[in-house]
Amino acid sequence: MNDIQTNLKKIKDSIPIDVTLVAVSKTKPVSDLMTAYNTGQRIFGENKIQEMAEKWDMLPKDISWHMIGHVQTNKVKYMAPFVDLIHAVDSFKLLKEIDKQAKKNNRVINCLLQIKIAEEESKFGLNEQEAINLLDNEDIKKLTNVHIEGLMGMATFTTNPQQIKDEFNKIMSFFKSLQPKYPQIKTLSIGMSGDYELAIECGSTMVRIGSSIFGARNYE
Length: 220
Ligand SMILES: *Cc1c(COP(=O)(O)O)cnc(C)c1O
Hints:
Pyridoxal 5'-phosphate (PLP)-binding protein, which is involved in PLP homeostasis. The chain is α/β, with parallel strands linked by helices. Helix content is about 40%, strand content about 20%. The chain has one domain (about 5-215): TIM Barrel (Alpha-Beta Barrel). The chain is built from nine helices and eight strands. An eight-stranded parallel sheet has the order 7-6-5-4-3-2-1-8. Strand 1, helix 2 (about 30-40) and strand 2 (about 45) form a beta-alpha-beta unit. The longest helix is centred in the last third of the chain and has 18 residues, at about 160-180. The mean pLDDT is about 95.
């Protein structure tokens, strides 16, 4: 077995079976994705639409593609034919465009609402009230081709595990508080290479792991 296969196997063995593993393959060549595919991995996460579309074109069609990065409204059309889950939805305008493009492709596209949990000022994501307002928006019922199935969050980039834990616990409580009223909210996407064990302790149902599988990324 090579490194990718060894890493993947180790991670799969260490996470509970009901936690979904998204292999984050951004910047990595399709040969690396194929190595993971041949070990049985079928869910891949990318953060750039063009890169994801190119990989989708080249790779087996039973792969489930997750868009984990920020999405610009004008690019939704390029992934609408195939994307399975969009993790970082943070506006009604974006949801409307996803719905429109999904309809054109005769599909329903699954989405997560990105919630701001990090201490650092981030441009993206909703606070809890904004997320509730979005879920309660009357016009959302007209969006028949999007399905909001949960929440996504990213903890502060810090070495302090207590802070990360506090942030994960905060999104977990919010997630739990939504479920009685919005039973479709089932997925909690938290946890990356550095903090996925903590995230799972805090109730993650989906982890997004890149460098611990594929090695460090090389940005040019
Ligand atoms: C890159 C990325 C990941 C994976 O990060 P690693 O630390 O390499 O595991 C997870 N989530 C998002 C949103 C990312 O952009």
